[in-house]
Amino acid sequence: MGVGLASQSATLSNQEALLEHFFARLKPAKTRVLLLDYDGTLAPFRTDTRKAVPYPGVCELIDQIMENGTTRVVIISGRWTRDLIPLLNLKQLPELWGTHGRERLWPEGRYEFAEISRETARALMKADAWESELALLGARIERKPASLAIHWRGVPGNRIERICDFVEIHWQRLGRGSGLELRQFSGGVELLAAGCTKAVAVDTILDEAGADAVAAYLGDDQTDEDAFDAIKGRGMGVLVSDTFRRTTADIWLRPPQELRNFLRDWINARHT
To answer: What is the CATH number of domain 4-114+196-268?
Structure first.
């Protein structure tokens, strides 16, 4: 299934052995947890993020996993949950965590949101006023409940440098008291309220699942590294990416075929 390892010194046989061992543990497990990033993992990146639908066949495989009833499926995304839902062509919605772990939407519809401070809300409003200047540079702003994502996918490299410089300078002017962190993701940067990360979501879910749970987290970029760290020693971290990069994930899969293979192997690892 795999073609590379997240450790540069590891071999293909090491990766295959890790996968074989993981699915051998999954087969008899009474508690299974499948944690999935969205953009870049389940769906390819698009300049228009509203058109970033999952790879062919992925939704059908997730449907099968959920229908089996033995796996808790959770999508943990940087997106606002309300923007993520229309893209998920699933028979039933799984548990969703949005805005990098700040939102939690349960399958039955219960919604939770970790509030941000007034100071941070004011800082985001000030940053929102940068839109016209950023648009002149070719960037696009995506508004979320507790963050502002600035996209530059498809923008020429010299303009990306100017966008980065602009955001860095203006972010520093907001001051440390703003409570905003600046994080880079594939195709942009994001100003987001500090305190919630994908690692918080992973820790919460794994604590709820218990020590006997067999779990995996699949993600693609730097925003998933804290989640890979959180699952270390408690499950398998899976980097899903066209190209290898330095990561703390345990294995590396290339989408979409190796992603689909992993999901099929999950389905086939049924109770005996």
So the answer is: 3.40.50.1000
